[in-house]
Design goal:
Length: 154
């Protein structure tokens, strides 16, 4: 009898740090600048990434110390997922929290860290750094409502 993978047998709270970190598929969607419409509460993602984000590798360049350099970077935990409505619908953390499975393209399912990129779910090579703008509001020129699409089942 095959052993079921940890993400099917453990709650997010029960996972080890290593298991928790491995849930990140490397899509880069959570590292994008977003705006919230003050009137409607609508979240507007952009194709502008955090200054610490490596747009080709789809990873933070200083993950361990990111909050020292980007104080408003949010540390995702099992206890704050509900408070983060901007998390991508395809995000493994969000999906597991909502009782869903990992998408078929997720690297933990495929065994291939490139599968998220091959599936077209990541933002690899599609973004510009927030460091290129003098005014942070200029990121609105790169609004990308298409990034709200859930690519989980593609």
């Amino acid at each position: 009898m095959a052993t079921r993978p940890f993400w099917e047998t453990k709650s997010l709270e029960q996972m080890t740090v290593r298991e928790w970190e491995s849930l990140c598929d490397g899509c880069g969607l959570c590292c994008l600048v977003r705006f919230e419409d003050e009137d409607t509460g609508e979240i507007v993602p952009t194709r502008v990434h955090c200054r610490l984000f490596d747009s080709e590798g789809c990873r933070c360049t200083n993950y361990g110390q990111r909050r020292q350099h980007v104080p408003d970077c949010i540390k995702l935990t099992p206890h704050n997922i509900d408070a983060l409505p901007w998390m991508p619908a395809s995000c493994a953390y969000r999906r597991l929290h909502e009782g869903k499975t990992l998408p078929l393209w997720h690297p933990l399912v495929t065994g291939d860290p490139e599968s998220v990129h091959a599936a077209g779910v990541s933002v690899r090579g599609q973004t510009v750094s927030e460091a290129t703008f003098e005014d942070p509001d200029d990121a609105l020129d790169f609004a990308a409502p298409d990034l709200l699409r859930d690519g989980s089942d593609d």
